[in-house]
Design brief:
Elements lengths: L2 H20 L3 E5 L3 H8 L4 E3 L6 H6 L5 E5 L3 H12 L3 E4 L6 H13 L3 E4 L13 H10 L3 E13 L7 E13 L11 H27 L12
Helix pairs in contact: 1-4, 6-7
């Protein structure tokens, strides 16, 4: 099958399949009311979540004025076409490799009132290792960085590099947000790498808690969250 034909097929079938499957999920955003608070404050943010968990926010956060940083790799073309149909704004490129143009596009999109979303271990891994792009963007833009965890149960897990997760029909799904972080401007070198490792640890803790919550019997009740 030709590449363009495959892209068109994914673009046509991907969004309705995601909407159909997602319509069956039982969903929670934690902390409760966080989206309403952000809207009232008019606060834009940069959100980071692992590549494997992108399917849940692709459904739950569609048409909410969010731009997604998507690589120029071939896999990124599939993602860009699908998320655009779901109401996201795909921004192609890396914030660090050839990165000035991509960074400027990101800031322009944010200036129009869009939040920014990164999968910091994408597009090809290593799995659950934060690359510099998200830290660079948060540092240069001045926008707060919000670590997020996505969890679902039950689910299918693919044998891809990221162990991509597909919640089963009627699954419990959660997005758990950490407290916003304000990074120093002009981070570079070892300081950038240190912030990458700190974000990895923060996302690890949030992910463990999200998985615990989604598997618990009283998952719909109030919980104490790591901040």
């Amino acid at each position: 099958m030709k590449k363009e034909t495959l892209h068109s097929l994914v673009e046509a079938l991907g969004p309705p399949l995601i909407r159909l499957l997602g319509s069956t999920w039982r969903f929670r955003m934690l902390p409760e009311g966080v989206e309403e608070q952000q809207k009232r404050k008019g606060q834009l943010s940069i959100f980071a979540f692992w590549h494997a968990g992108m399917l849940v926010p692709a459904y739950s956060e569609r048409f909410k004025k969010i731009a997604i940083i998507v690589s120029k790799h071939q896999d990124g073309e599939f993602i860009a076409r699908v998320v655009k149909r779901l109401g996201f704004v795909p921004v192609r490129g890396s914030s660090t490799r050839g990165g000035r143009a991509a960074m400027m596009r990101t800031l322009k999109v944010a200036a129009k009132g869009h939040n920014i979303a990164f999968t910091p271990d994408g597009p090809r891994g290593p799995r659950h290792q934060v690359q510099r792009g998200v830290i660079f963007a948060a540092s240069r833009s001045g926008l707060p960085l919000v670590a997020c965890a996505v969890a679902s149960w039950p689910h299918w897990r693919l044998r891809s590099w990221d162990r991509f997760t597909i919640p089963k029909p009627f699954a419990k799904t959660i997005i758990l947000e950490g407290a916003p972080l304000h990074l120093p401007p002009d981070l570079d070198g070892e300081a950038l790498d240190a912030e990458c490792r700190a974000l990895e640890e923060r996302m690890r803790v949030l992910t463990a808690e999200a998985r615990r919550i989604v598997r618990s019997r009283n998952w719909e009740t109030s919980v104490t969250l790591p901040r």
